[in-house]
Design brief:
183 residues, mainly alpha, Rna Polymerase Sigma Factor, Chain: A, Arc Repressor Mutant, subunit A, 2 domains, two-stranded antiparallel sheet, 66% helix
């Protein structure tokens, strides 16, 4: 089997997007093992059909395959669709001026946002990840999601609104819980 299609090679065209593929798969599947398996399956499918790749944005083409692979895998685990978790360590860049309190607050804020994203419906979660984490254009998102540009924009707007509402609810829930030291 050949790695080339015309003047392009699979390796030079698709491998630069491995991190984006993994990020999307991780958010869609909810765990490391399923994400790794989905990305591996997606890359095998992409390789198998690389001769049919007509150029353009390789990332959008690959992420569409990753997305479809994840959804295929999730259909088999449909009872877990709404209860996915994301348990990645939070990395904070070291800065000499940060105090333990500011580091704790940043870590807490990051975890709060991740929790809110995890609680979103899968459709909202994926559109947010593609736009905010992967910084994809609306037109590339439309290709990946197989949706019209208008639907992508509407879904992203609704996802952002839902995320905002959820963050407010989570914040209120956390601030209304009684303190352990009795204050």
């Amino acid at each position: 089997m050949t790695w080339t299609s015309g003047s392009r090679t699979f390796e030079s065209t698709m491998l630069p997007h491995l991190n984006a593929a993994y990020t999307l798969a991780r958010w869609l599947t909810g765990n490391v093992q399923d994400a790794e398996d989905a990305v591996q399956d997606a890359y095998l499918r992409a390789f198998r059909f690389f001769d049919g790749y007509r150029g353009g944005d390789g990332r959008a083409w690959l992420l569409q395959i990753v997305r479809n692979t994840c959804y295929t895998r999730l259909r088999g685990k449909s009872s877990h669709l709404s209860s996915t978790t994301f348990d990645e360590q939070v990395h904070i860049s070291e800065c000499g001026t940060e105090t333990p309190e500011t580091i704790a607050i940043k870590s807490s804020d990051i975890q709060l946002v991740r929790t809110a994203i995890e609680e979103l419906p899968l459709k909202y979660r994926e559109v947010l990840i593609l736009r905010e984490v992967e910084a994809m254009s609306y037109s590339d998102m439309a290709k990946v999601l197989n949706e019209s540009l208008g639907n992508v924009r509407t879904t992203l707007f609704r996802a952002r609104q839902q995320l905002k509402r959820d963050l407010i609810k989570i914040t209120k829930r956390e601030t209304s819980q009684p303190q352990l030291d009795g204050r």
